[in-house]
Protein backbone atom coordinates (compact mmCIF):
# COMPACT_ATOMS: atom_id res chain seq x y z
CA UNK A 1 0.00 0.00 0.00
CA UNK A 2 1.40 3.43 -0.92
CA UNK A 3 2.29 5.35 2.23
CA UNK A 4 3.86 8.67 3.09
CA UNK A 5 6.89 9.16 5.32
CA UNK A 6 4.58 9.19 8.35
CA UNK A 7 3.36 5.68 7.52
CA UNK A 8 -0.12 6.66 6.30
CA UNK A 9 -1.60 6.67 2.80
CA UNK A 10 0.12 8.84 0.20
CA UNK A 11 -2.14 10.54 -2.35
CA UNK A 12 0.82 11.37 -4.61
CA UNK A 13 0.86 7.71 -5.66
CA UNK A 14 -2.77 7.73 -6.77
CA UNK A 15 -3.75 8.31 -10.38
CA UNK A 16 -5.48 11.66 -10.85
CA UNK A 17 -6.50 11.10 -14.48
CA UNK A 18 -10.25 11.12 -13.97
CA UNK A 19 -10.90 10.72 -17.72
CA UNK A 20 -9.47 7.21 -17.83
CA UNK A 21 -12.95 5.80 -17.27
CA UNK A 22 -16.08 6.53 -19.28
CA UNK A 23 -18.39 9.21 -17.89
CA UNK A 24 -21.61 8.39 -16.15
CA UNK A 25 -25.12 9.47 -17.06
CA UNK A 26 -28.14 11.03 -15.39
CA UNK A 27 -31.53 9.47 -16.15
CA UNK A 28 -34.52 11.63 -15.11
CA UNK A 29 -37.28 9.69 -13.36
CA UNK A 30 -40.22 11.52 -11.76
CA UNK A 31 -40.25 14.84 -9.93
CA UNK A 32 -36.68 15.54 -8.83
CA UNK A 33 -35.78 11.83 -8.75
CA UNK A 34 -32.90 10.83 -10.99
CA UNK A 35 -30.83 7.71 -11.54
CA UNK A 36 -27.08 8.19 -11.81
CA UNK A 37 -25.35 5.37 -13.71
CA UNK A 38 -21.63 4.64 -13.99
CA UNK A 39 -20.06 1.54 -15.52
CA UNK A 40 -16.53 0.45 -14.67
CA UNK A 41 -14.29 -2.43 -15.69
CA UNK A 42 -11.72 -3.53 -13.11
CA UNK A 43 -8.96 -6.10 -13.50
CA UNK A 44 -9.79 -7.68 -10.12
CA UNK A 45 -12.17 -10.61 -9.63
CA UNK A 46 -15.77 -9.92 -8.50
CA UNK A 47 -14.94 -11.29 -5.04
CA UNK A 48 -12.22 -8.64 -4.60
CA UNK A 49 -14.51 -5.83 -5.75
CA UNK A 50 -17.29 -7.16 -3.51
CA UNK A 51 -14.93 -7.01 -0.52
CA UNK A 52 -14.12 -3.38 -1.33
CA UNK A 53 -17.85 -2.58 -1.31
CA UNK A 54 -18.75 -4.47 1.86
CA UNK A 55 -15.76 -4.98 4.18
CA UNK A 56 -15.52 -1.96 6.53
CA UNK A 57 -11.75 -2.39 6.64
CA UNK A 58 -11.61 -1.93 2.88
CA UNK A 59 -14.37 0.59 2.19
CA UNK A 60 -12.29 3.25 3.97
CA UNK A 61 -9.53 2.80 1.38
CA UNK A 62 -11.65 4.44 -1.33
CA UNK A 63 -15.17 5.36 -0.24
CA UNK A 64 -16.28 5.90 3.36
CA UNK A 65 -16.56 4.32 6.77
CA UNK A 66 -19.25 1.61 6.95
CA UNK A 67 -21.16 0.42 10.00
CA UNK A 68 -23.20 -2.73 9.45
CA UNK A 69 -23.11 -5.95 7.45
CA UNK A 70 -23.70 -6.77 3.80
CA UNK A 71 -26.70 -8.94 4.57
CA UNK A 72 -30.26 -8.31 3.35
CA UNK A 73 -32.15 -6.43 6.05
CA UNK A 74 -29.04 -5.41 7.98
CA UNK A 75 -28.17 -1.83 8.84
CA UNK A 76 -25.52 -0.33 6.54
CA UNK A 77 -24.64 3.17 7.73
CA UNK A 78 -22.15 5.42 5.94
CA UNK A 79 -19.79 8.13 7.19
CA UNK A 80 -18.01 10.24 4.56
CA UNK A 81 -14.36 11.02 5.28
CA UNK A 82 -13.60 13.71 2.67
CA UNK A 83 -15.57 16.68 3.94
CA UNK A 84 -13.84 20.03 4.41
CA UNK A 85 -14.21 22.23 7.48
CA UNK A 86 -12.02 25.33 7.82
CA UNK A 87 -9.35 23.84 5.61
CA UNK A 88 -9.12 20.44 7.30
CA UNK A 89 -10.47 17.06 6.34
CA UNK A 90 -13.15 15.91 8.78
CA UNK A 91 -15.71 13.16 9.05
CA UNK A 92 -19.42 13.74 8.57
CA UNK A 93 -22.12 12.37 10.84
CA UNK A 94 -23.33 8.84 10.20
CA UNK A 95 -25.97 8.58 7.48
CA UNK A 96 -28.21 5.65 8.37
CA UNK A 97 -29.04 3.00 5.81
CA UNK A 98 -30.23 -0.54 5.29
CA UNK A 99 -29.30 -3.37 2.95
CA UNK A 100 -32.12 -3.96 0.49
CA UNK A 101 -30.37 -6.84 -1.29
CA UNK A 102 -27.04 -8.61 -0.83
CA UNK A 103 -26.05 -11.48 -3.10
CA UNK A 104 -22.30 -11.98 -2.78
CA UNK A 105 -20.38 -11.34 -4.95
CA UNK A 106 -22.90 -10.07 -7.52
CA UNK A 107 -25.34 -7.54 -6.07
CA UNK A 108 -25.37 -5.01 -3.27
CA UNK A 109 -28.28 -2.59 -2.95
CA UNK A 110 -28.61 -0.26 0.03
CA UNK A 111 -30.88 2.59 1.02
CA UNK A 112 -29.33 5.61 2.69
CA UNK A 113 -30.81 8.61 4.48
CA UNK A 114 -28.65 11.06 2.53
CA UNK A 115 -27.87 9.25 -0.71
CA UNK A 116 -31.08 7.48 -1.68
CA UNK A 117 -30.64 4.01 -3.16
CA UNK A 118 -27.15 2.82 -4.04
CA UNK A 119 -26.86 -0.32 -6.19
CA UNK A 120 -23.73 -2.14 -7.33
CA UNK A 121 -24.06 -5.00 -9.82
CA UNK A 122 -20.91 -7.06 -10.40
CA UNK A 123 -20.38 -9.51 -13.23
CA UNK A 124 -17.24 -11.44 -14.17
CA UNK A 125 -15.43 -10.63 -17.41
CA UNK A 126 -12.41 -12.30 -19.04
CA UNK A 127 -10.28 -9.42 -17.69
CA UNK A 128 -11.88 -9.15 -14.22
CA UNK A 129 -15.13 -7.45 -13.23
CA UNK A 130 -17.76 -5.23 -14.77
CA UNK A 131 -19.40 -2.94 -12.21
CA UNK A 132 -22.67 -1.18 -12.99
CA UNK A 133 -23.14 1.39 -10.24
CA UNK A 134 -26.43 3.25 -9.87
CA UNK A 135 -27.59 5.84 -7.38
CA UNK A 136 -31.26 6.82 -7.35
CA UNK A 137 -31.77 10.09 -5.48
CA UNK A 138 -34.33 12.87 -5.15
CA UNK A 139 -32.37 16.07 -5.82
CA UNK A 140 -32.38 19.05 -8.22
CA UNK A 141 -30.43 18.71 -11.47
CA UNK A 142 -27.43 20.73 -10.28
CA UNK A 143 -27.04 18.56 -7.18
CA UNK A 144 -27.39 15.42 -9.30
CA UNK A 145 -24.36 16.48 -11.36
CA UNK A 146 -22.39 17.16 -8.18
CA UNK A 147 -23.24 13.66 -6.94
CA UNK A 148 -22.37 12.10 -10.30
CA UNK A 149 -18.96 13.79 -10.21
CA UNK A 150 -18.47 12.56 -6.66
CA UNK A 151 -19.22 8.96 -7.54
CA UNK A 152 -16.97 9.25 -10.60
CA UNK A 153 -14.03 10.21 -8.37
CA UNK A 154 -14.83 7.56 -5.74
CA UNK A 155 -14.96 4.82 -8.36
CA UNK A 156 -11.56 5.99 -9.58
CA UNK A 157 -10.37 5.63 -5.98
CA UNK A 158 -11.78 2.08 -6.07
CA UNK A 159 -9.53 1.23 -9.01
CA UNK A 160 -6.57 2.48 -6.98
CA UNK A 161 -7.64 0.56 -3.86
CA UNK A 162 -7.83 -2.65 -5.89
CA UNK A 163 -4.17 -2.01 -6.72
CA UNK A 164 -3.24 -1.63 -3.06
CA UNK A 165 -3.37 2.17 -2.75
CA UNK A 166 -5.45 3.94 -0.09
CA UNK A 167 -6.69 7.53 -0.05
CA UNK A 168 -5.32 9.90 2.59
CA UNK A 169 -8.66 11.45 3.57
CA UNK A 170 -7.06 14.23 5.63
CA UNK A 171 -5.50 15.53 2.39
CA UNK A 172 -8.36 14.65 0.03
CA UNK A 173 -9.56 18.24 -0.28
CA UNK A 174 -6.16 19.55 -1.35
CA UNK A 175 -5.29 16.59 -3.56
CA UNK A 176 -8.60 15.51 -5.10
CA UNK A 177 -11.12 18.33 -4.85
CA UNK A 178 -9.51 19.92 -7.96
CA UNK A 179 -10.10 16.58 -9.75
CA UNK A 180 -13.73 16.62 -8.62
CA UNK A 181 -14.09 20.21 -9.85
CA UNK A 182 -12.70 19.22 -13.25
CA UNK A 183 -15.04 16.24 -13.55
CA UNK A 184 -18.03 18.29 -12.36
CA UNK A 185 -17.27 21.04 -14.89
CA UNK A 186 -17.06 18.43 -17.64
CA UNK A 187 -20.41 16.92 -16.69
CA UNK A 188 -22.04 20.33 -16.35
CA UNK A 189 -20.68 21.45 -19.72
CA UNK A 190 -21.70 18.40 -21.72
CA UNK A 191 -25.05 17.34 -20.35
CA UNK A 192 -23.78 14.53 -18.10
CA UNK A 193 -22.07 11.86 -20.00
CA UNK A 194 -21.57 12.80 -23.64
CA UNK A 195 -18.17 13.16 -25.33
CA UNK A 196 -16.06 14.68 -22.59
CA UNK A 197 -12.47 14.41 -21.51
CA UNK A 198 -10.84 16.18 -18.58
TrEMBL record:
Cleavable signal peptide: none
Query: Family assignment?
Result: Belongs to the AHA1 family.
Which InterPro entries does the protein's record reference? ASHA1/2-like_C, START-like_dom_sf
Q: Residue limits of the Activator of Hsp90 ATPase homologue 1/2-like C-terminal domain?
A: 44-162
Q: Which residues form a coiled coil?
A: none
Q: Where are the transmembrane segments?
A: none
Q: Output this protein's name.
A: SRPBCC family protein
Tell me the Gene3D superfamilies matching this sequence: 3.30.530.20
Amino acid sequence: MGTNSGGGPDNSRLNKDMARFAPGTVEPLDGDRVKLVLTRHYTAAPEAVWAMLTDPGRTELWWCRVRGQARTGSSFDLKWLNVKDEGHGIETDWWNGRVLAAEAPHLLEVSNAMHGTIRAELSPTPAGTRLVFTNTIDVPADVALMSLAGWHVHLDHLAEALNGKAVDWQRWWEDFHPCWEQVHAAYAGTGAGTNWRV
